[in-house]
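Continuing the batch. This is chain 6 of the set; chains 1 through 5 are on the previous pages. Same settings as before, nothing changed between runs. Recording input and output for traceability.
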Amino acid sequence: MGKIDIAQHNYLSNPRRFADIWNGIAFNGKQVINWKDLSDIDSTQTYFKNTIALKKTADLIKKWTSTGQELAIFITENQDIIDYSLPVRVMFEEALSYHAQAMDITRKNRDRFKKKHSENQAFQEEKTISAGEYLYMFHEDDKLKPVAALVLYWGTEHWSGSTTLHGMIDFSAIKPEDRDLLKQFIPDYTIKVIDMNNISDDTNPFQDPGLRSLVGLLNKRNDKDALINFASQNSGKMDSETQDLAVLMLGSDKLKKYYDKITKEGASDDKMCKAIDDLIKDSEFKGRLEGKIEGKLEGKLEGKIEGKSEGEIQTYVRIINDGVYTIEQAASNTNLSVKDFIAKAESFGFTIKNKPVSYEQ
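Output for chain 6:
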């Protein structure tokens, strides 16, 4: 996991924020979930049968329990780059969660059955189970708890991936009249992807001051004046943890440099606003930022170098290390020189194998 992945995970693992996410999105702002009713469960889900072993780790999974009764399981996935296979991935996570519940019920039923029928003692008070219930140890009145999944997309590009299983399947070779008949036997599966960059201040559904301010700030990352004004007006609403994540996700190395400096000096909670003020005073950066906003060629290029997301760089480093791309190809695809690409990767803590001794371009 990269720095941003870890920071996002830690930030949203806070039960107050986790509950606010689900209340805001799933329940239209109604405070249905009390954060005190949420508990962590193992995010690693497994399946093993007949030598087939499967394992999947979700970003965040919490169980919702109230008055001693388990109500639901919530899965939250963070995405910084587009995954075009996401419907299958999320469907797999939900399936494993349901499978784990079914296996737990089966295990408890089997243990209970063995205990009550030890030494061939029959218990008259218990109803006779059917052949299917005995064979599979899952009874007619056994039920699973609902599993709900939500994907939070934090990337800067417009989400262009499919949000349905059918959207990933190629039906084109089948005649239209036959295609519709076949689809009846292929259940569709839809995922809920929330583009966090398209939530306006007017439609922001969150109540937690930090989370609400984080979303508002990131939505303005490409508008210099709006970002500065918003940060000035809302820095007091952003706790230190929110400011830490915001600085990372804004993707500016220079802003992070100023922010880290102010943090070490023991500044107050408005350290991000102070860092932005110091950043504006830096005439070199100001020229780059203004060039990016106003469309100047040099400013646009520098802005791209500053704004490359950690997730995108991490993906290309993996592709390079797997031998699929050369460093030159990856640098070209990200509109960076080889030197800038390597510097950006190293700033995020990523290691490029077989890095050339000289990479001046």
